[in-house]
Design brief:
Blueprint: E1 2-3, E2 9-11, H1 25-31, E3 48-51, H2 58-66, E4 70-73, H3 85-98, H4 102-105, H5 112-134
Parallel strand pairs: 3-4
Antiparallel strand pairs: 1-2
Domain Transposase IS4-like: 5-123
InterPro entries: Transposase_11
Protein name: Transposase DDE domain-containing protein
Length: 137
């Protein structure tokens, strides 16, 4: 899952349980819809990407930079307390919100397409609730 600074999910993918997270980094970035700017300006992606130590590989740093995004990954082999937890808790909060949905807390479906549909519905409900709480209506 990749979220924006306020905790709204931008893109999600479903993988097997024993798959490394970094393998889904580039598909998630590709799945982010471009943000529309002023009229006539080109669409653009987010400027900075925060991630934990699992993503700290030069290969992925280069791939993220090639997309025009500045990678802010915690360094492997350094002490904890890099300060990135200030930003990363937003993702943990979004995952916790998804766990409010009983069907997503524990996977009961055998077919992955059904589980992915429930995952996307859960993300849509999170977006809707955020918009509803922040609207002036």
């Amino acid at each position: 899952m990749i979220v924006e600074g306020g905790g709204i999910p931008l893109a999600v993918t479903l993988t097997g349980g024993q798959r490394h997270d970094v393998t889904q980094l580039m598909p998630l970035i590709e799945a982010i819809p471009p943000v529309r700017g002023r009229r006539g300006r080109p669409r653009r992606r987010p400027e900075v990407l925060y991630a934990d130590r699992a993503y700290d590989y030069d290969k992925y740093r280069k791939l993220v930079r090639a997309k025009g995004i500045q990678p802010e990954f915690a360094r492997r082999g350094t002490e904890h307390g890099s300060g990135l937890g200030v930003y990363r808790w937003v993702v943990e909060k979004a995952i916790a919100l998804l766990h409010w949905f009983r069907r997503l807390r524990i996977r009961w479906e055998i077919r992955d397409d059904i589980h992915e549909a429930f995952l996307r519905i859960g993300c849509s409900i999170i977006c809707w609730r955020k918009l509803k709480n922040n609207s002036n209506c």
